[in-house]
Amino acid sequence: SLLLLWPRFLLRPELVSSIFLLIAIKWILAEINGETPNSKWGKSPTIVLSLIGAQFHGFFIILPMLWLLAALLKRNPRYLLLGLASWAISIISPGHIHTLLYPITVAGQFSGDGINLHNTIAEMVPLLETSSELGITTLVFKLTAIWGAIWIISTAGRVPVITVLLWVATLFLAISGRRNIGLFGITFFLIHSHYQPAAKLLWSFKIPLPKLQTATRILAPLLSIIVLSFWLPGILNSSFYLGEAVPRRTGLGISQ
Q1: Do the beta carbons of residue 50 and residue 9 sit within 8 Å?
Q2: Is 195:156 a contact under the CB 8 Å cutoff?
Q3: Of 35, 43, 59, 24, nearest to 162 (Cα)?
Q4: Which of 57, 89, 95, 174 could join 13 via S-S bond, C-beta 3.0 to 4.6 A?
Q5: What is the DSSP code (8-state) at residue 213?
Q6: DSSP class per residue in 4-39
Q7: pLDDT mean over 152-175
Q8: What pLDDT shows up at residue 194?
Q9: What's the Cα-to-Cα distance from 150 to each of 1, 100, 168, rounded to whole Å?
Q10: What is the pLDDT of residue 15?
């Protein structure tokens, strides 16, 4: 996940959206699984997150969309209302109606006969068409896409459906524009962390769960140590950034 997230580790509003996504998906999964404790907050924390997120970044729309997705999956009209409320509250911002409509406005910029933003803004270039930059990062993206599919299939439905759909969506978003690779890195982490062992199997093919969990617990830390041992020296002496053709970064990852 870190190897996918590093291009987006800049002091920019997107970091707020990334943090809020991690918090929101946890709360929403807890709610649809009936795990939310009774409190004065009820189901409103994600509405508050949307309000705060709307002050920073257009990706606040992900939170309402998660509720709308939950409404479709669970056929629960209350989740639909929560999604609409999470979106509507964004009007309480400096941009007012413009903030509310911003996600729709941005979506419209990628259609029609106007300027093709994918060809004019570097970070919106399709990831797999990035030939001169992000070589190692693109390779990691391909490997994690393959592994993510294997993990989801082999666990036979124990990864929550909403998390799987979010992972698939960010996979295609990352392919369509390299600026979205950070979101894919987050959802790649989520499909491994949000796990429901008691879920009914969706298909018969699976790797026996105890063996898979044991292998993951052993291999994940080991692979992390190996990767970091090769990666950290390149970060410190800037060779990693030069190899990825991103000269605006320097040693220790400080953005210039």
Answers
A1: no
A2: no
A3: 24
A4: 57
A5: H
A6: HHGGG-SSSTHHHHHHHHHHHHHHHHHHHTT-PPP-
A7: 85
A8: 67
A9: 16, 38, 13
A10: 80
What pLDDT is stored for residue 40 in this prediction?
A: 45
Q: Which two tokens stand for residue 49?
A: 């997150």
Give dist(CA 128, CA 1) in Å, integer. Answer: 18
**Residue 128 to residue 176: CA distance in whole angstroms:** 8
**Sequence letter at residue 236:** L
Neighbours of 28 (CB within 10 A): 25
Structure-block tokens of residue 208: 């026996």
- What pLDDT digit, counting tens, does each position of 39-65 carry? 444 455 777 778 887 787 777 788 888
How far from 148 is each of 142, 163, 166, 172, CA to CA, in Å?
A: 10, 12, 12, 13
Give the DSSP H or E segment for 241: helix 239-243
What pLDDT is recorded for position 17?
Answer: 78
User: Tokens 């002496």 label which residue?
Assistant: 237
Strands (E), the chain: none
Would residue 42 be called left, alpha or beta, if left means φ above 0 and alpha means ψ between -120 and 50 degrees?
Answer: left
